[in-house]
C-alpha cells in the first residue's frame, strides 16, 4: 500500500487564512443548497457527557456532502466553565474522510469553524426569512458563535442599532467593545434581557444557561420580526411558540434526537411537532420553498448545528490553505 498522509490545519493556519465574510457565507450556503436538493446525508448530533461534575458535554456531528466529495465528523466540546481556565467554551476538531474508501483525508481545528458556520447559518436564515429592511438587532449571549452572528448579520443588513447582553458584565462589556471596534459602529450593551430584545427586528438568543429557564418573554416579539433561539438549554416559556406564522428548522432529524435545545420542552409538551414546521432551511436555500412571503410574518428559526455546514466550510478552508501553501501533511500509514 502506498504512503498515506493526512492534511492538517491548526488554529494558527486558519487564522492566517483570514476568511472574508462572503467566503464564509458562500461556503455555508453551498452546503445548504446541497442539503435542500437531497445531495447530503445528515445524521443528528449525538451527545456525550463524561461527568456531570465537569459542567459540559461533547457534541458529535456527522454528515456527507456529495458535491464536495467529503464525509465528515466533527467532535466539539461544550464546557460552560472553560472561561475560568482561560479557554473558549467550545473546542473542536473536524475530520474529513473519503466517502468511497473511508480513508481519513484531513484534520482541521474546528472551534473557529463552529463559530463561523453558526453565525453564517443565523445570517443566511435572516437573509431569507428576516424582515426586508431590519434596522434593530437584539442579541443575547457573548460566546464565540455570538460574535459571528452579529458580524455576519451586520454585514448583510448594516443595522442602525445593535444591542447585546450576556449574564456576566465583564463578558458583555468586552463583547460590545470588540464588536464596536470591528464593525466601526456603536454597539449598545444592555443590563437586561428586555432592553436588549424588546421591539427588535431580528432577535437572537444564544445564551449559556445551566438549566432550562423561561426568561425570553413572548410579549417582546413584535409582529413581522425574525427570532432565532438556539441556546443548548431552553430560555423559552411554553407559550413562546404561540402566534408564529412560520417555524423553520435546520434539519428535521435534529428535532427527533437528543434532549437539549431551545424548543425541546415545547416538543416534549406537545406544543409543536414535525407537522408544525414549514420547511428545512435547505429547502429555502435551493428555492424549493419560498422564505418570507409578507412583511407581517413573524418567523422562528431553530438551528441546532448542521454537519454539512462544518464540512462545507472545512472544505473551503482546506482549498484556500492549499492555495496559500500552509497545509501541514501528517504521515498516517506507510506500509
UniProtKB/TrEMBL annotation:
UniProt keyword annotations, A-Z: Plasmid
Classification via Pfam families: OCD_Mu_crystall
PANTHER family: KETIMINE REDUCTASE MU-CRYSTALLIN (PTHR13812:SF19)
Protein name: Ornithine cyclodeaminase family protein
Organism: Aliisedimentitalea scapharcae
Organism lineage: Bacteria, Pseudomonadati, Pseudomonadota, Alphaproteobacteria, Rhodobacterales
Amino acid at each position: 500500500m502506498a504512503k498515506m498522509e493526512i492534511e492538517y490545519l491548526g488554529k494558527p493556519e486558519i487564522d492566517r487564512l483570514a476568511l472574508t465574510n462572503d467566503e464564509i457565507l458562500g461556503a455555508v450556503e453551498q452546503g445548504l443548497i446541497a442539503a435542500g436538493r437531497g445531495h447530503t446525508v445528515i445524521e443528528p448530533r449525538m451527545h456525550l457527557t463524561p461527568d456531570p461534575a465537569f459542567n459540559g458535554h461533547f457534541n458529535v456531528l456527522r454528515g456527507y456532502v456529495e458535491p464536495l466529495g467529503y464525509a465528515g465528523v466533527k467532535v466539539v466540546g461544550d464546557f460552560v466553565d472553560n472561561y475560568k481556565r482561560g479557554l473558549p467554551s467550545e473546542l473542536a476538531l473536524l475530520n474529513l474522510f473519503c466517502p468511497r474508501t473511508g480513508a481519513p483525508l484531513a484534520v482541521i481545528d474546528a472551534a473557529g469553524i463552529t463559530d463561523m458556520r453558526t453565525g453564517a447559518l443565523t445570517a443566511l436564515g435572516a437573509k431569507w426569512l428576516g424582515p426586508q429592511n431590519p434596522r434593530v438587532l437584539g442579541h443575547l449571549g457573548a460566546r464565540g458563535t455570538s460574535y459571528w452572528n452579529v458580524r455576519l448579520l451586520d454585514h448583510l443588513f448594516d443595522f442602525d442599532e445593535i444591542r447585546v447582553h450576556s449574564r456576566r458584565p465583564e463578558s458583555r462589556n468586552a463583547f460590545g467593545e470588540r464588536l464596536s471596534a470591528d464593525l466601526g459602529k456603536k454597539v449598545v450593551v444592555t443590563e437586561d434581557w428586555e432592553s436588549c430584545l424588546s421591539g427588535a427586528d431580528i432577535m437572537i438568543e444564544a445564551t449559556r444557561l445551566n438549566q432550562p429557564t423561561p426568561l425570553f418573554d413572548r410579549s417582546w416579539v413584535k409582529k413581522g420580526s425574525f427570532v432565532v433561539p438556539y441556546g443548548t438549554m431552553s430560555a423559552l416559556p411554553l407559550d413562546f411558540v404561540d402566534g408564529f406564522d412560520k417555524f423553520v428548522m435546520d434539519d428535521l432529524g435534529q428535532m427527533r434526537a437528543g434532549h437539549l435545545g431551545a424548543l425541546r420542552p415545547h416538543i416534549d409538551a406537545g406544543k409543536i411537532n414535525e407537522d408544525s414546521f414549514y420547511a428545512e432551511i435547505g429547502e429555502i436555500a435551493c428555492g424549493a420553498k419560498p422564505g418570507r412571503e409578507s412583511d407581517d410574518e413573524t418567523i422562528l428559526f431553530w438551528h441546532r448545528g448542521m454537519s454539512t455546514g462544518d464540512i462545507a466550510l472545512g472544505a473551503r478552508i482546506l482549498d484556500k490553505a492549499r492555495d496559500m501553501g500552509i497545509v501541514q501533511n501528517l504521515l498516517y500509514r506507510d506500509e
